[in-house]
Design goal:
Layout: H1 2-8, H2 16-29, H3 32-48, H4 52-68, H5 72-88, H6 92-108, H7 114-134, H8 138-151, H9 156-172, H10 176-188, H11 197-210, H12 214-230, H13 236-248, H14 252-268, H15 272-288, H16 292-308, H17 312-328, H18 334-350, H19 353-369, H20 373-387, H21 392-408, H22 412-431, H23 436-442, H24 447-460, H25 463-473, H26 488-502, H27 514-524, H28 543-550, E1 554-561, E2 564-570, E3 575-582, H29 583-601, H30 606-628, E4 639-642, E5 660-662, H31 666-678, E6 684-689, H32 696-706, E7 711-713, H33 720-727, E8 730-736, E9 739-740, E10 750-753, E11 756-759, H34 760-766, E12 772-775, E13 784-786, E14 790-792, H35 794-801, E15 805-809, H36 818-830, H37 835-845, H38 851-859, E16 860-864
Parallel strand pairs: 1-4, 4-5, 5-16, 6-7, 6-8, 8-12, 12-15
Antiparallel strand pairs: 1-2, 2-3, 9-10, 10-11, 13-14, 15-16
C-alpha cells in the first residue's frame, strides 16, 4: 500500500481504479491501516480531477479511521492531504488546524521510521508555504520555499511543487528571469509524472507571457491544455491563468471568454479558492471592457469570499477592483479612498508589486476625483517609485501615475517627460511582439499617456508640436513591414487543416473558431524580424518637409481630447489648430447614416428607399457641419485626412467636394507617397473575379478591355495560392469578391476566393502587397479602430506591407451597380491619375439619383498616395 501511495505522487488519476479496489478490499478485511491509506490515495485522485468535495469526504473518513485505531502516521498523512483540499475549498483556518493536528499526530507516532517522519514533516512545511501563498503573502511563501530547497527535498514530487510555486511567488514581485528558472526546473521534474505536466506548463506559460516571451508562453499554453485533456483533468484553473495572460496582450474578448469558462468550471466542481480568484480576474477584465456594474458586483463577491477564506491579499486585490469600478461609475467617495489606500499599503507590504502599483494609482485617481490633491500626489508618486522596479507594463502604470501627479502640481513639462518616457518603453515592448495585431493591441497600454501628452501640447497652441505628438501615438504598429513569404498562405492553410483533423484537445478560447485560433497562434509563434528599409525614415517630420511631400494638398489630422475632437490643418502656406465638436455628436450621426446606406444598398420598396435617402442626406449634411465646415478649407482642395477612433468609420468621400484620400497617419501617408514616386506604373495588372458574385465576372471582363494583357483569375481559378502569388509583384490589382467583415477581429475579415475565404491575417502573414489595390468588396474598407490610436483591417494591413494606395468601401457594395464606378475609376488610372483623383472623377460621373449609385458614391474611399 505504501508503494501505491508513492505512485500517487506521480500520477494519481491513473491509480483511481486501483485505489477504489483497495478501499473495497480493506473494508472487507476490516484492515484500518490499509483502509486509511487507500482512502487517501483515492482522495488524491479525486482532487487531481478537481473533485475537492469528494476528496474531502474520503479524507474525513481516513482521518476518523486512523484516529480511532491510533494509527498516528496514517492520520498525519491524511491530515496533510486534507489541509491541501481544505485550502482549495477556501477553508484556510481549517487547513491550518489540520496542519497543526498533523504535527501533533506525527510526534505521537512511535512505529514510524525516521525517513518517513521526515517526509511527513516536509509535506507539512510545504503546505504551510502554500497557505501563505494562497493567503496573499508571496514574500513569506518565497522564504519558506527557499528554505525547503536549501535543506534538500526528499522527492521529485515535493521538488516539482516547490519549484512551481516558488516560480509563481517570484513572478508576483516581477523577478521573471528567476521565476522562469524555477518553472523550468519544475517542468524538468515531470518526465515521469505526466499527470502533473499540465499545471507546471501552465505556470511557465503564464510567467513567459508576462515576461514578454510570447512565443514560448503560447506554445506552453497549447501543450498545457493538451496535457490537461490527456490526463482527464478539468481546465478551470488553466482557463483563468490563460485569461490573465490574454489581459497583458489586451486580447480582451479572449480573456473574457476564458475567465467566464474558469468561473463556470471552478464553481461547478466546488473549488472555492480558485473560483474566488477566477471571479476576481473576470471582474478586472470587465473593468477593462467597460462593463462597470459587472466589475463592481464580481469584485464585491470576490472580496466577501476572500474575507471568509481569511485571504487578506486576495481581499485587498478585490477591494481595489471594486473601488476602481465605483470611481468610473462616479459613485466613489472618501470611504472608498481610505479602502484603496489601505489595500495599497497591504499589497506593498505583502510583496504584490504589480497590484500595489495599480492600487496606489487607483487611490491617487480617486483622491483627485474627490478634490484631495494633497493626498493624491504622494500616493501617485509612490506608485511611480514602485513601478520602476517592475517589467515594462508595470513601469508604464508608474509613468502614468507620475504624469498625473505632475499635472496635479501644474508641472506640465515634467508630466510631458513622463509621457514621452512611457511611450518609449511601450515602443520597445511593442517591437518585440510578432504580429501587427498584437502590436496594435499593445498600444492600448499607452493610450492615456498619449491623451495626457496631447492635452499638454494643445495648451501651447502650436500646430507643429501638436502634429508631432499625434504622430507619436498614431498607427505605430503599422510602421513595421514583415518579410515576404508567398508560400506561407498555402503552408498555413495546409497545416491548419492537418491540425484540425488530428486535434483531440479542447479549444483554449471559445470566441473564435478552431481554425481562427490555430492560424492566429501559428502567427504568434513565428519569430520574424520586420524588414527595415534604410531609405524610409519613419520619424515624424517638420511642417516644411511635410508640405513638400503634400505638394499642394492639405493635411487634416484629427485627435481627441476629453471627448472632443481637434484637428491640425496643414495647408501650403500655414498650419492651424481647429477645435471641432464632441465625438459623441459624430457617433449620433454616423450610426443612422450607415443604417440608411445599408437600407439603400438593398431597398425593399421605393418608399423605403426614399426614407433612407432622406435620412442619409440629413446625416451627411450634419457630419459636414461637424467635421469639415469648421476646417475652413476650400471646397475643391485636395485633402489628406488622418482620422482617429470612430472617425475611421466615417464615409469621408461624401463629406468633401474635392479629391480626398485617407491614411492611418501622416507618417504612413508619406511612406506611400515615396513608394508611389519610386515605382510609377511598373509591374502587371491582376484582375480577380470571386465566386458567387453576380457582377464580378462582368466587371472583370469590362476591365480587361482597359488593361490588355492583364492576369485574369476567374471564380474557378482564383484560389488563395494563385491570388497571393499574382499580387506579390502587381502594380495594380482589382479584386471583385464577396467580402466579410469581422468587427470582433478585423484580422479575420476575409475575401471569398475559389477555395474559400482568405483572411487579412493570411494576406498580411504572406508579406505581399500590390503597389495599388482596388477592393470592390463589401466592407473591405471598414478598418477597426483600437485604443492607442491604432487601426486594423484590409486597408491598414496592405499599407503596412507596402501597398501605396487602396480603394475600398466601408459598407455593403451594390453588386452590379458598382461596375460603372469601377470602369470610370480605372479609366482615370489609365490617364495617370492617382487613386484619389481617379475616384473623385469617377464619383462625379455616376448616377447619384439611384439608391445603388448613391451608396457607391458615399462609401468608396481612397487610402494612401498612389
Amino acid at each position: 500500500m505504501r508503494s501505491l501511495l508513492a505512485a500517487a505522487d506521480v500520477d494519481p488519476v491513473a491509480l483511481e481504479t486501483e485505489a477504489a479496489a483497495a478501499v473495497a478490499a480493506a473494508r472487507r478485511r476490516k484492515d484500518p491501516e490499509i483502509l486509511g491509506l487507500s482512502l487517501r490515495v483515492l482522495a488524491m485522485a479525486l482532487r487531481a480531477r478537481m473533485d475537492d468535495p469528494g476528496a474531502r469526504r474520503l479524507l474525513n473518513e481516513a482521518v476518523h479511521v486512523a484516529r480511532r485505531h491510533e494509527l498516528h502516521s496514517v492520520a498525519a498523512g491524511a491530515l496533510v492531504t486534507r489541509a491541501t483540499v481544505l485550502q482549495e475549498l477556501g477553508r484556510v483556518n481549517g487547513s491550518m488546524r489540520d496542519l497543526d493536528a498533523a504535527l501533533a499526530a506525527i510526534s505521537r507516532a512511535t512505529d514510524i521510521e525516521a525517513g518517513e517522519r521526515a517526509r511527513v514533516l516536509e509535506r507539512i512545511l510545504v503546505s504551510r508555504a502554500v497557505v501563505a501563498q494562497n493567503a496573499g503573502m508571496p514574500a513569506v511563501a518565497e522564504a519558506r520555499y527557499r528554505a525547503l530547497l536549501a535543506g534538500g527535498v526528499s522527492s521529485e514530487f515535493v521538488g516539482r511543487l516547490v519549484h512551481n510555486n516558488l516560480a509563481l511567488a517570484l513572478a508576483e514581485r516581477g523577478a521573471y528571469d528567476q521565476a522562469l528558472e524555477q518553472a523550468d526546473a519544475a517542468v524538468a521534474m515531470t518526465a515521469d509524472a505526466p499527470g502533473f505536466l499540465g499545471p507546471v506548463l501552465q505556470t511557465r506559460a503564464w510567467i513567459a507571457v508576462r515576461a514578454g516571451r510570447l512565443a514560448q508562453g503560447l506554445v506552453d499554453f497549447e501543450r498545457s491544455a493538451q496535457a490537461h485533456t490527456d490526463a482527464g483533468v478539468p481546465l478551470g484553473e488553466y482557463y483563468y491563468e490563460y485569461a490573465d495572460a490574454m489581459v497583458d496582450l489586451r486580447l480582451l474578448p479572449e480573456a473574457t471568454s476564458a475567465a467566464e469558462r474558469a468561473v463556470e468550471e471552478l464553481v461547478s466542481v466546488g473549488s472555492a479558492l480558485m473560483a474566488t480568484e477566477a471571479k476576481l480576474r473576470l471582474a478586472h477584465i470587465s473593468l477593462l471592457t467597460g462593463n462597470l456594474e459587472a466589475a463592481r458586483d464580481l469584485a464585491d463577491a470576490a472580496a466577501d469570499e476572500a474575507r471568509r477564506q481569511h485571504r487578506a491579499g486576495w481581499r485587498d486585490k478585490a477591494v481595489l477592483v471594486g473601488v476602481e469600478a465605483r470611481l468610473r461609475l462616479r459613485s466613489a467617495g472618501v470611504t472608498e479612498l481610505r479602502a484603496a489606500r489601505r489595500a495599497a499599503r497591504n499589497l506593498e507590504r505583502a510583496g504584490h508589486l504589480h497590484s500595489a502599483v495599480e492600487a496606489y494609482l487607483v487611490a491617487g485617481r480617486l483622491a483627485l476625483d474627490v478634490d484631495r490633491p494633497r493626498d493624491a500626489v504622494p500616493t501617485l508618486v509612490r506608485a511611480h517609485e514602485l513601478g520602476r522596479e517592475g517589467q515594462v507594463l508595470v513601469r508604464l502604470r508608474g509613468r502614468l501615475a507620475a504624469a498625473l501627479a505632475d499635472r496635479a502640481r501644474r508641472r506640465s513639462a515634467s508630466a510631458l517627460v513622463q509621457c514621452r518616457a512611457g511611450l518609449r518603453d511601450l515602443a520597445v515592448h511593442r517591437s518585440n511582439l510578432p504580429t501587427i495585431e498584437l502590436r496594435a493591441l499593445a498600444s492600448g497600454h499607452g493610450a492615456e499617456l498619449g491623451e495626457i501628452g496631447l492635452g499638454i501640447v494643445l495648451e501651447t497652441g502650436s500646430p507643429a508640436q501638436t502634429l508631432a505628438w499625434m504622430e507619436r501615438t498614431r498607427a505605430a504598429a503599422l510602421t513595421a513591414r514583415f518579410p515576404r513569404s508567398v508560400d506561407a498562405v498555402v503552408e498555413r492553410r495546409t497545416h491548419t487543416q492537418e491540425q484540425a483533423a488530428s486535434s483531440t484537445g479542447r479549444s483554449v478560447v471559445t470566441t473564435e473558431t478552431a481554425d481562427d485560433h490555430r492560424i492566429r497562434t501559428a502567427e504568434w509563434a513565428r519569430s520574424v524580424e520586420p524588414v527595415v528599409d534604410p531609405a524610409q525614415d519613419l520619424r515624424p517630420m517638420g511642417l516644411t518637409a511635410l508640405r513638400a511631400e503634400l505638394a499642394g494638398a492639405t493635411l487634416v489630422e484629427l485627435g481627441t481630447r476629453e471627448g472632443r475632437l481637434v484637428a491640425v490643418v496643414v495647408e501650403p502656406r500655414q498650419a492651424r489648430l481647429v477645435e471641432l465638436g464632441a465625438a459623441a455628436d459624430v457617433q449620433n450621426e454616423l450610426r443612422p447614416l450607415l443604417f440608411a446606406l445599408r437600407r439603400l444598398a438593398n431597398p425593399r420598396s421605393p418608399q423605403a428607399a426614399d426614407a433612407a435617402r432622406a435620412s442619409a442626406d440629413l446625416r451627411i449634411a450634419r457630419l459636414r457641419s461637424i467635421l469639415v465646415a469648421p476646417l475652413g478649407v476650400d471646397a475643391d482642395a485636395e485633402l489628406v485626412v488622418v482620422p482617429v477612433g470612430l472617425l475611421h468609420g466615417v464615409p469621408w468621400s461624401c463629406l468633401h467636394d474635392g479629391p480626398l484620400t485617407q491614411a492611418p497617419s501622416a507618417t504612413i501617408w508619406v511612406r506611400t507617397r515615396r513608394a508611389a514616386l519610386a515605382r510609377p506604373g511598373q509591374g502587371a495588372t491582376v484582375l480577380v473575379a470571386g465566386p458567387g458574385l453576380e457582377g464580378a465576372r462582368e466587371e472583370v471582363e469590362a476591365l480587361v478591355d482597359l488593361h490588355p494583357g492583364a492576369t485574369v483569375l476567374e471564380p474557378s481559378s482564383g484560389t488563395a495560392a494563385a491570388v497571393v502569388a499574382a499580387l506579390a509583384d502587381a502594380d495594380l490589382a482589382h479584386l471583385a469578391c464577396h467580402g466579410t467583415s469581422r468587427t470582433d477581429n478585423p484580422m479575420f475579415s476575409s475575401l471569398l476566393l475559389a477555395d474559400g475565404p482568405v483572411t487579412v491575417q493570411e494576406l498580411h502573414g504572406a508579406g505581399v502587397a500590390p503597389h495599388r489595390l482596388v477592393l470592390a468588396s463589401c466592407h473591405s474598407g471598414a478598418d477597426v479602430a483600437y485604443l492607442g490610436d491604432e487601426v486594423l483591417g484590409f486597408v491598414s494591413a496592405m499599407l503596412a506591407q507596402g501597398t501605396a494606395g487602396v480603394v475600398a468601401s466601408i459598407a455593403a457594395v451594390p453588386d452590379v451597380a458598382a461596375v460603372d464606378l469601377m470602369l470610370e475609376l480605372h479609366r482615370g488610372l489609365r490617364e495617370g491619375l492617382t487613386l484619389a483623383r481617379a475616384l473623385h472623377a469617377a464619383r462625379g460621373r455616376i448616377d447619384r439619383d439611384s439608391p445603388e449609385g448613391f451608396v457607391n458614391w458615399c462609401t468608396f474611399s481612397a487610402h494612401g498616395a498612389a
